[in-house]
Every structure is written in C-alpha cells, then in structure tokens.
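As a warm-up, study this chain.
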Amino acid sequence: MKFLKEVKEETSNRNKLKHLLVLLMRILSIAALVFAFAQPFIPQGNEVKKGEKAISLFIDNSYSMSSLSADVPLLEKAKQRAKEIVNAYGIEDRFQILTHDFEGRHQRLVSQEDALSLIDEIEITPSVRELSKVVNRVQQALSSATIENKTSYLISDFQKNITDISVEQDTSIEYNLVPLQSVRKRNISLDSAWFQAPVQMLNQNNPLVVKVRNLSDEKAENVRLTLTHGGQTKPLGTLTIPPQSESIDTVNMTVLKEGWHEAELSITDYPVQFDDKLYFTFNVPKEINILVINDGQKNNYLDAAFQGIQVFKIDNQASNNLDYSKLPLYNLIVINELNAVSSGLAFELKNYVNNGGNVLVFPAPRSDINSYKSFLGGFPANELIAFEEKERTVGKINTEEFIFKDVYENTRSNLRLPITKGNFQLTNFGSRGEEQLLTYRDGTTFLGKYKNGQGHLYLCSAPLDNQWNDLVKNAEVFIPMVYKIAVSSGTSKKIMQYIGKDEVLEAANSLTGAETVYKIKGKKEEFIPEQKKIGSRVIIGINNQIKEAGFYDLFYNEDEINEKYAFNFNRKESELDYYTEDELQSKVGGNIKVLAANAQTNFTQFIGERSRGIVLWKWCLIAALIFLFIEILLLRFWKT
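Now compare it with the structure written out below.
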C-alpha cells in the first residue's frame, strides 16, 4: 500500500505539472492573439500617423528613365518602387499617381487597386517638367483632400537640369524623394542642325551645320552620321567626339526641286535612343521677288544683276504708283534714288522690315534731307547729313558678316573695291546699332546694316548711279552683295521644333473669314490647333497636343499644304547628369527626406516601418501558433 501510495502521488504531481504547462501555453497563445489584434509596433524615430492617409506618388517617365539600372530600365524600377509604396499602406488610404504628362485623371485621389492599375499604364513620354511644377501639382491635389495625413513620394533619377525643388515647401505635406540612377551614364545626342543661309536655293549647295554632343565621360569613336532626304539615305561619315564635348560639322545639301522638303539626320547610340534622330523641314521658293522703287528711270545694272539668276524676279515700280498692300509679297525692296520718302511709304517700309522684310536704300544725290531723316530715324538708323562731291575709295570689306562671308577665298588678292565721286556724310550715333559692311579708308560708312524687328535695313551713303558710284561695275562686290541681301530677306524660319518647348508657331495666312479653320496632320494623328489670325499671319498654339517626333502638315485643304513642321523630342533629357543622394539631401534641406535604399530593398517593408514603425502583430500571431503547437505536443507526447 505504501508503494502504491507513492506511485499515485508521483503520477498526480506529473499530471498537475502537465496541466499547468498546457494552461500556460493556452494563456500565452490567447495573450499573443490579443496583442496581435491590438497591432503593437516599435517607433523608428518618425512620428507615427494614425488614421486615413492621402499619398501622392510622382513617377518620372521622361526619356532619361529609359537608361538601364542593374537589370531593367529605370522606368520599370520606378514603377516597381511605386507599387511597393502603395502596398505599404492600407486599403482605406487614398492615392494620387502623377507623371510628366500631367493628365487630368492623375489629378484626383483613387483607391489602392486603381492606383496599382494606373502605375501599370505608365509609359515613356516626351514631356518633361521641372520638379517645382510637379510639387505644385501635388499640392493642388492633396490640398483638396479632407484627409489630414498627407505624404508625397517623388521617384526620379533627379537630373540636375530639372531638379529645382526649393527648401521651403508646404509643411502640411511630408515630402520624400526616392532617387534611382542608371549603372552607366553614356549618351550621344544629335543636338541640333541649321542652314547657314536663311533661304535654300535650287540646284545649289546649301551648307547644313550639324551639332552632335558626347554627354558621357568616355571618348565616342566611329559615331556614324547619316542623312535621309528625298527618299535616299546618304552616309555622311563618322565622328570622333572627346568626353563631355561636342562636334560641329558642315554638310552640303543639293536641292533638285522646289517646294517643301522633309529630311532626317540620324546616329546610332545605345541605350538612350530618343535623341538619335533629328527631323527638319525647309521650303525652296520657286521665285525670290524683288521690288525696286524708282523716281525716274530704272537702273539697268541692277536689273541685269537680278535677271542673271533665274530664281530672281524683279519688279520696277514708280514711287507714286505703289500698292502698299502688296509689299509683304516681296522678299526685298530696293529704294533706288528717291528724292524724298513720303511719310506713308516710310510707315509701310518700317512695318515691312519689322515683320521680317529687308530694305536696301540708295539715296538720290539731291535728296530731301528732312524726309530721309524722318524715314531713317524711325528704324532707327544713322541719318543723312550733307552730300559731298568728293572722290573717295572704299578701303575695307566686312567678311565676317553674312553678306560677304564665304564669298572670297582671299580678300587681298587683287580685289577691286568701289570708288565714289560723291556721297552723303552720315551721323554716327552708337545707339543706332549700325553694322558696317563696307567702309571708306577713313573708317566712315559706305554700306551699313541695321536690325529692326525681324528684318534689316541696308543703307548706302552714295547713290547707285554710276555717275557717282562705280559699285555697279565692280561685279565681284556688287553681284554677291545684292544676291545675298536678297536671299537673306525675310525671317530665317526654324527648320525644326521641339516637343513641349515650342508651343507657338507662326504661318502665313492666305484665307479670309472667321470660320476658316487650319488643321495639323501627322503620321498617326490629326487635330485642330488653337489659332489666331492677325492680318497676313496666323498664330498656331500646340498646347502639348503633339506627342510623337516626326513631320506635321498645316493645311486648310488637304490638297494644299500651307506649312510643314518637324517636331523632335526635347533634348533637355539628353544630359545624364544626376544628383547623388548626399547632394540631393544637401540641396533640399532637412524638411524633405531622401529615402536612401539599395536596389534590393523591399519598399513595402521599408515604407511600412517608416510610416507605422516596426509592426509586431505578425510576430504575435506567430507566437500564438507556437504556443498552440507546444500545447499539442504536451497533450500528445506527455504520457500520464
């Protein structure tokens, strides 16, 4: 009995211990579940914000984001980061998804599910905006929300040329910058191109200047440059460009037909390719119209100079029989020895020059000084003082200016300059902005140039009549002078535009009536632009309606094209120069946080810990499961 009593007491103690351990496991598991539902956390230095939140995410989708990160393009990495940030918040929170496109649907707050869908739809865009404008857009969206907790994330490569965020921001919004950078900063950009002459001529070489930039720290070798024009692709050779430098080359384009032309320059570069093509258009006129205004007989030498070239069409008219409304139809107007310039003609000529025309003036030996003073002073230009019958020789020619540039291989080799037997003395006001083209040996002006508005006035101090001036007999000076003044007449039109940069265009308006509407048509789209008719011109507003680089036609009737435009992607994104994390933090100050994280960081966890601290409910749930598992083990394997 004593033995059995001891065994019974020992078994009772073991059962009691087992029951106590099971009870403890159940108590601990219940406690862990209670803590899990209480959602405890450990703060991480940031103030934890409770309640519903409004979160704005800007995803940089400009062309620089097509550069490669470690494994994918930066845009894909930015979209991944944005999704991780959205998933770090709750389903009750509201989100704004913003890109460089500034679409209307991106200006409202949406649910978590809709935010993830909007992120998936983001693609590369030619639009690019300074980050200060992005911040203003964020403030507009979040300020309209009634939610108190407002946070903004800007995910970008933070190029220096668009990162202009100031330190002073809306303190009611928490700003966070998420920098991404490519693994290789290499890019060759076909920057720009322009013709040396304002007017392109038929059946002649038209020099085209091309600028290519190397925006990397490595030497670029064997950069192939090609030109596509008239359905033919022509290789222009290869370029070698030092690091962080540019190469400027000149190629000759021979134009075989009149009218509008489309052309394309291209290079081969990787991985940033949006700036490897450059589209441009130009118009070769059928005729260059010259108007010569005479008081008496026309000048036969002047007629012969222009009639010697087929493209020029000269029209001689008397000063008392002018139709002022037709002056804009001429490329150049020559004032040939008028004794006086009427106030009406002076007014019309000033408007003509201001709108892009060129006027060449040869005064008469017995000119009315006062009428010329009023005429020339309106530009303003230096004025006539008195006519002197004195022989003088031109001693210098300005070969740096367009009119005589590239005309002579050597100006010292037997170049005969004009001699005059009479000329006007001119005032010498520095404020008139005179550019001397031909000067006498004493430094006074024989032929001067004055800019006014978009055009120029050319003033000769001597009459054109060979009784006073042998300029017309000096073909090596006279012919290139009048020829290049004529081809430089009018506004030098831009041969290319840039998407997002050139929002206003100007074209000739040949239509009357308020209901006439111009349209713009590209390869994939057609739209009616904003337009405003002002006399003989029409102002066209693009307003971000063009998204693709290429050629676009302006027309009223599809059978007749008014203007051709070439739009290229903005080269602002070509410069792959970024702020580092330290530079970025120093620039924006302490009010804005730069979230420094490596490529492998899980932003869902990273942002969750920043916004809510280290969340412990998962660990509490795991602990509850562990306690229940221990209880099962005790009940199963602890034999009584």
